[in-house]
Structures are given as C-alpha cells and as structure tokens.
Amino acid sequence: MASLPILGGIALLIGLIILALKFAQKSSSTSTTTSSSSTLTKKANKPLNRKVTLNPEADAKYILNTLTPKSTPLEILYAIATSPDNITVATKSLELRADVVQRKLVHLAEQAKKAEDAQANATLDELLNDDDDDAWANDDEDDEAAQLAKAAKEEKKKQAAALAKATGKDAQDVTKVMLEGVDDDVLGMQWVKKNLTALGVWPPPKYTTKNNINMDAPTERNLIMTMGRLNARALNSHPELLQAGPTGKIDPTYFQSTMEYRQRVGQQLDNVLRFACTLRSFQLACAVLDAIVMFKIGCMDAHSEVELKWFQNFMEEKYGKEGTPKLILEDTYLGVPTEEPSKDKEENKTEAEKKEEEKNKLVQLIAQSRQVTTTDDKMSLEMQITRQHAEAFTKEKLALCQRQGIPPQIGMQAYRESWFIIVRAYKLNEDGSRMSNWDGAMGGSNPNHFEVLKGNKHAIFDMLTEDTIASFEKEFVGSDVSDRKVIVGWPFVISNVAQKSGKVKIHLPPPDVPGKYEFSVTIKSQEFLCGVEEFKLVVDIAQGVKKKKDEKQEEDKEGKKDK
Fold first, then answer.
1. Cα angle: 543, vertex 545, 548; to 5 degrees
2. Other beta carbons less than 10 A from residue 427's beta carbon
3. Could you report the per-residue pLDDT of 449-472, keeping only the tens digit for each?
4. 109 has a pLDDT exceeding 80
5. Which pTM does this prediction carry?
6. What's the DSSP call for residue 211?
7. Rounded mean pLDDT of 126-143?
8. Could you tell me which residues come within 8 angstroms of residue 503 by beta carbon, excluding any fewer than 6 positions away?
9. Which of 8, 45, 159, 179 has its CA 20 to 30 A from that of 106?
10. What are the residues facing 505 on neighbouring strands?
C-alpha cells in the first residue's frame, strides 16, 4: 500500500511532462502562425490609394498617332487597349485586386489558426480529462450573470459589425469575395485566357508589341478583356461558366471590370470616329465603324459570311422575318435647301392654313427645281428613311417590359439605335465617267484639308506627329483621291424604338467649279451586323453669280485704284 503514493506521484509527473510537451508544441505552432499572420496583417492594413489620375489629352495623342489610314478594326481596338489611361486604370485594378487577395489570405490564415488552436485544445482536454470526470466543467455556465455578460458581448459584436459595414470597413465583405487562384473552382481572367487560347485567338491575332518586348500585366489584362468581348458568344455559352454563375463562383475583380472597360472603349471608339472624319479618311472611318459593331455584338470580323449569317438567323428567331435591321431609303434629294413642311395635325388646321401649306409645297417644289451654283452657301442632302424592323422591335420590347414588370414608358427610354452617314463626291467627265485628278475643292476652302487644320490651329492637328501627318497626307495624293476622301460624316440616332420613318437632312458645301458631280452616300450601322446601305445622286452645278458683298468689295478696290 505504501507504493500507491509513489505510483500516484509518478503518474502526476508523467502527466505534467506530457502537458509541458503539448504546451511547447502549441506555443511553437501559435508563434509561427502568429508571426505569419502578423506579417500578412501588416501588409493588408497598409492604406491603399484608390484614386486614379488620367490624362485624356495624352491618351488621345497616343491613340491618334498609333493609327494609320490602313488600320484594321483589330488594330484600332489594340491601340485603345494599350492607351495610357486604360493602362493606368488596369494597373490600379490589379493593385486593388492584390489588396483584396491579401486581405482574404489574412482572413484564411486567421481561420486556420483558430482551427489549429481548437484542435490543440481538444487534444489537451482528451489527455487531461477523464470521460466520467466533470471536474473541469464550468460551474458558472448557467449562472445568470455569465449569461448577461455573454449577451452583452454578442450585442457589442453586432454593433461593431454594423459600424464597419456603414464605414466600408466590413471585413466580412472581403472574406465573401470569390477570388480566382484563392478559392477553389472560381473563374476569372486566367480562365478567360485559357479559353481564348483554346479558341485560337490568344495571343491576339497580328498583335505586336513595340520593340518586341514582353506583354506586361496591365496590357495583358486589357487585351484579354478586348478578345474576351470579341469572343463573348463562345465564352458566355461555355458549360463551366454556365455552372459557375448560379453558384457564385465568379471572380468579380475581373468580370465587373469588364463592364467598365466596355464603357470606356465605346467612348474612345466614338472619339476615333470623329478623328477619322476630321482627317477625311474614308477607309479609317469604315474600319472604326466595323470595330464599334464588332465590340458591341461580340465577333472577330464584321464582314465574315459566317458571322453575318449567324446574326441574321439570331434576329429572325428573336424578332421574326421582318426583324432584321434594315433601312429603306426613299425620296432622296440633293440640291437647294428647302423649307420643312408644317407638321401640325390635319384636324387642327383651318382652311386658310391648309391653303398656305399647299402653297408652301409648291414653293418647295419650285425651289428644288432651281440649279445649285458654285456660290450657294450650301446644298441639302435629304432622304426619307423607313426602319423595316421598327414594328418587330417594338413588339419584342413591350413583351420584355411585361415579363420584367417594367412600365413600357420607362423601359423604352433606354433604347438607342445609331447609324452613320458618310458622303463622298466625284467630279464627272462629259461622258459620265469619274474624273481621277479632281482636287476636291468645295465650299471655297483650300482642298488640302491638312493646311486648313494647321491654319486654324485645330486641336487634333496639334496632337499629330510628323509621321502621322505624312501617312494621312499620302492617302490624298495620286489618282482616285475622291474614293478615299470624306466630304462629311454624320451620325443619326433613333431613341424611339417605335419610330417607323423620318426625314434626314444634311448640309453640304457646293463644289467650287461648275460641272456635273456625283455624290456617293454610304450608311453603316453602329449597332448591328447588317448590310451597308448605299446610293448615288448626280447634280449639275452652275457657275454662280458673285454675292453683293463680294461685288461691293471689288467696287471698293476699283474705286481706290481710280483715286
């Protein structure tokens, strides 16, 4: 019996040794985890500047001097993707993503530490506690004061969480963000890149970097977004993406940025279109219009028979046979500007007003019969445009509003349909053939529009480098310049989906030399993959009589000479 105290002492000693070993192991693990977590926390807590400073002038200068008259739609989109402002935004987006990733890694490290501590405590409890022994139980668990303290602690947590959310410091928001490369099976930029490679469009076709340098991260991000948009149909119908969407396994740091990127690129394409028309480049203007449609629809080639056929089938399935977008052009006229007839409703007119309207119509017809002269201030290009697809589009939009429970008057407000009219002019020989060496003089101004831009100190001209100016000037040297020269570029927008028809009027300068001229009108859509509408009008320009102001100036000069 005397050996029992000894055995008890040995057992106690062994228990203390095991307890010490466990404590040392736990302390070592905790120290390592705490050190790692502390390092991550310091990085995550470092304030990040979210402001982005842009320079629109430098951005425009880069884009304009990257382009040439022969730039393709893809080259235009590449120039925009690599512009300074877009690179700046991409750089900031990557920094913000890195910050979110870092904060989530801190959260995951903390969660791992808590789980490890819980496991260590569970192991220690198993070692020291007997299954039938409740000596270590908390006798105060049911104590009323303990319950009140616990409730107060929970309330304090709720208030802290509400305050954090209100001030934008809610850590829970970061922990819930699904991140590619951090969370399992989450799709983001790398998934898009992998599938673009499988489609054969990554690296981007015919894309070359300056000096053959490697593509940096911001450039790669923008080009992936560009190619992703052009191949949106294939990506959006991919089974992995269709499965990831409903489960929330989509990386918002990439896919939300694509929405903002699309908006910026759309605005920059509009600016490049204005630039092309200012420099009178027909080829570049058409390429920009193709790029606009490709980026909106999501296709690699606006003239591909496959893409055109797909779009036609898609529109017919959605809107019916009459749903394919098409403009019907009627009552085309080019000549002396005429007054618009009254648009008052017939039932609101008195007999006197009706007679006056008939008189005005007669005056209009007489005016249209008058020949345009070289000294007229302007000519008028007029056409009646009927939208073949108006009724089919209206029915579908109304049905969509009903399905979504949106009042039609609100749902229809967002509709926008853009078209672009480009006019070119040709001087004709006596046999009706086009004169190849006409200088294009119109409106009494210098036919060399670069000299006009330079003389007027135009903002766009001041941005151009000598190489860019030379490349565009070269386009207007030689024969058949009229094929490549824009007289006027004019956008028109339909904001009422139900509008069936309307009249479009564009003012043009008359040629400086009398003779017969042909005006070629090209209408391209900025929304749809559809055929180009074209028509030609021939007009005789007579030698005009000098205006009274000019005659008076000449008389004054003669009078001064006589003196």
1. 160
2. 20
3. 889 999 999 999 999 999 999 999
4. yes
5. 0.79
6. G
7. 49
8. 340, 382, 383, 384, 385
9. 159
10. 382
Which two structure tokens, joined as six digits, stand for 100?
């979110």
CA distance 389 to 320: 9
Judge whether 521 and 303 are in contact, CB under 8 Å: no
Query: CA 104 to CA 37: how far, in whole Å?
Result: 12
**Angle at alpha carbon of residue 280, lines to 278 and 284, rounded to 5°:** 100
The stretches of 347-465 forming alpha helices (DSSP H) are 351-369, 390-404, 408-411, 449-455, 459-463
- In 456-495, which residue ranges form alpha helices assigned H by DSSP? 459-463, 466-475, 481-484
> Can you tell me the distance from the alpha carbon of 384 to that of 332, in angstroms, rounded to the nearest whole number?
7
Query: How many Cβ atoms sit within 10 Å of the Cβ of residue 561?
Result: 7
Number of other residues whose CB lies within 10 A of the CB of residue 503: 12
Burial 115-134 (b: 16+ CB within 10 A, else e): eeeeebeeeeeeeeeeeeee
Question: Position of tokens 């009459």?
Answer: 322
pLDDT tens digits along 415-446: 999 999 999 999 999 999 999 989 899 988 88
- DSSP for 159-173, written as a single string: HHHHHHHHTT--HHH
Beta-bridge partner residues of 493: 418
Which tokens hold the place of 201?
Answer: 């469009």
- For residue 57 the two structure tokens come to 């002038």
Residue position matching structure tokens 């007003």: 353
